[in-house]
Specification:
- There is one protein chain.
- With 172 residues, the chain is an all-alpha fold.
- The protein has one domain.
- The protein is 77% helix and 0% strand.
- It has eight helices and no strands.
- Helix 2 runs antiparallel to helix 3 (29-53), helix 4 (58-80) runs antiparallel to helix 6 (90-114) and helix 6 packs antiparallel against helix 7.
- It is elongated and about 90 Å long.
- 23% of the residues are buried.
- This is Hemerythrin HHE cation binding domain-containing protein.
Amino acid sequence: MPSLRTSRLLQAQSFDAISQFLREGMADEATREMRDSLSALSQQIEALVQARRKRVDVAALIPLGRALADSARAHQRLMNGLGTPWQSLYEFAAYQRDLRRLRDALDAWLLVLEQHSRRERRVFQQFEQRAWRTLGGALLLIDMYEQSSTWPQQAQPVRAPSWWQRLRAWLG
């Protein structure tokens, strides 16, 4: 049975709800910075999505998009600076790839937005889908990191005794 906190995440219907979930999490020092950065990124995505849905003027959308692009780059730099425990997780590489794809989708949308292209709606939908996927990957990464920090340390495999050690043991 999922915990109350997990079930609240499953009911999240907006980027802002994910941001709130991240702020409420009890994180150790290793995850606090990651959660804060991801929360800020999620809030900016929500602001951009809401502005776009309200059909705000293009002149107002472009600065929001550029600010989000700057934040995504800063978040990418934070990710690159995380230590080996993070980078050794399989999910880390997948999240890095998703983050790059999000930035590419945002850049593509900003380009068609500035050109007043008819494709703007479709490209924006692709960006929004990419944003959901990226934030989902980030939540998975955080969860896997937090779970891995509670795993018992695996014992080093015992090496087979050398012939010299076997001889000494046999001789007594």
